[in-house]
Amino acid sequence: MENGLVKLGRYAVVFLSALVAVQSLRYYAVLGNIWPGVDEGIRHVIERVPVQALAHMLFGPIALFAGAFQFMPKLRARRPRLHRWTGRTYMVACLIAGVGALATAPYASGGPVAALGFGLLAVCWLASNIGGWRAALKGNFDQHRIWMRYSYAMTFGAVTLRLQLPVGLMFLGFHSYTEMSVWLAYTAWIPNVMVVALYTWLPGRSSVDGSSFPATKKGRPRFPGHPTIWRQYNREETDWQGGFVCPR
């Protein structure tokens, strides 16, 4: 039976992702030169590099919303075709948004420190998606699922950024997003990645489905990319789970 805390966390992720994705739809209004609730610093970035910035801001919400449902086991079990096409949508949206983010990072309103953080995020985000895509094409769906956990940890940075922003403005003495972005460029996504890393490496932990992955001889699963990653994994129990772009 699935751990209740894991189930609650999954539904919280879906709810928060949907909320932020809908809130981010305001950037579509920018196409009509309407700027509803857009921070002045962000507006300045969009005006400087509109194609790059809007590629990130318009496709990012699609990735955030689509990716959240990839961790729903009932969707994978009952609607595998929908699961796969949602995963492909997520992947394409991530690649477009990631390239846009990488091209926009040098113009970050928080200056070079923020630019470095957002640039690192974009590189890692793209790398995790490409790694997941390649693993799926090779039929290594165990590795694919791990890469996609890391990918969504960084996608979910859009949520953690918005959760941290009001805390900084109300309690930590920051006066704007631009001022706080020097920190948000790192705190919005690095803790997410660390949580996923701990979740993946801890022996005896549960997968996103509530099932347990076997440990290696040393008692813990290996990191993605290792040549002997999870060779002993029981595929018969997990083939139905699929992956984000799994062709099954």
Provide structural commentary.
The chain has 248 residues and is an all-alpha fold. It has one domain (4-241). It is 66% helix and 0% strand. Helix 5 runs antiparallel to helix 6, helix 6 packs antiparallel against helix 7 and helix 6 runs parallel beside helix 9 (177-187). It is globular and about 45 Å long. Mean pLDDT is 82; it is low at 206-248.
Quaternary structure type: single chain
Helical amount: 55-70%
SSE run: HHHHHHHHHHH
Counted by DSSP, the helix tally is: 11
Total individual domains: 1
User: How many E-type strands?
Assistant: 0
State which percent range the strand residues make up.
under 5%
Low-confidence residue ranges: 206-248
Would you tell me the overall average pLDDT?
82
Gross morphology: globular
Structural class: mainly alpha
Radius of gyration based on Cα positions: 19 Å
Task: List the SSEs and their pairings.
Elements (H helix, E strand, L loop, with lengths): L3 H21 L15 H9 L1 H19 L4 H6 L1 H25 L7 H26 L3 H15 L1 H15 L5 H11 L2 H12 L33 H4 L10
Helix pairs in contact: 1-3, 2-3, 3-5, 5-6, 6-7, 6-9, 7-10, 8-9
Structure summarized in a few sentences:
By secondary structure, the chain is mostly helical.
Summary tags:
single chain; 248 residues; mainly alpha; 66% helix; globular; disordered C terminus
